[in-house]
Design brief:
205 residues; mainly alpha; 8 helices; 0% strand
């Protein structure tokens, strides 16, 4: 867990290690496979009900989007500048090709990559400290959400807080889905898809 924190902070704050999502995703998949017998240990398994997972993902995404728009952004706006947008954000407006590229990136790198790295691998290793009890998982969600916030360090203070709260919502979706990672993947994908659509049509400008 400490090593994971070093990777996240080392890349996003100090820029002394490679991209943490790639490193932790690869490390996590290998580690869980070897130490825990398979990826199902971190929830990367077929759910009993895809409909339930889809609804959890949709609801969690809705909560995150509404909370961000109407609570987090207005409150953090009193103290810090608006979060810095990702590199492609300013190029998406009215550009279908860039928007499609952005959708590809958010569903692969963000939805799959970040969820395997954070809610899959790091959360499980954090919960290991408390023998993977329910309490240990919830405590781990808080710790991993802080790291997730720093994983978006480039967005500035308001962006770190916004992403940290998003991490809490993603963690809650994971627990509501009985620790099934697909709930987080869908939630993350839905959130970022809305962001791409928003940027494409220029709704927030």
């Amino acid at each position: 867990m400490l090593f994971g924190g070093f990777i996240v902070i080392g890349h996003n704050v100090f820029r002394i290690v490679p991209n943490e999502v790639i490193v932790l995703c690869v490390l996590g998949l290998v580690s869980v496979r070897l130490r825990d017998g398979g990826w199902s240990a971190m929830g990367f398994t077929r759910p009993a009900s895809w409909r339930r997972i889809f609804l959890i993902g949709l609801a969690a995404a809705g909560v995150r989007i509404l909370l961000g728009q109407f609570v987090i952004e207005p409150v953090t706006g009193f103290f810090w500048p608006t979060p810095t947008a990702p590199a492609l954000a300013n190029e998406i407006t009215g550009n279908a090709k860039i928007a499609l590229l952005a959708l590809l990136l958010v569903w692969t790198f963000a939805a799959f990559g970040e969820e395997i790295a954070y809610r899959g691998y790091l959360l499980m290793r954090a919960a290991d400290i408390g023998r993977r009890s329910t309490t240990a998982y919830w405590a781990g969600i808080v710790v991993v959400s802080i790291l997730f916030g720093y994983g978006h360090y480039y967005k500035g203070p308001s962006g770190i807080i916004d992403s940290g709260i998003a991490g809490l919502i993603l963690g809650a979706a994971y627990m509501l889905a009985h620790r099934n990672l697909w709930a987080c993947i869908l939630t993350h994908g839905f959130i970022d898809t809305f962001g791409v659509i928003d940027a494409f049509f220029g709704w927030s400008k």
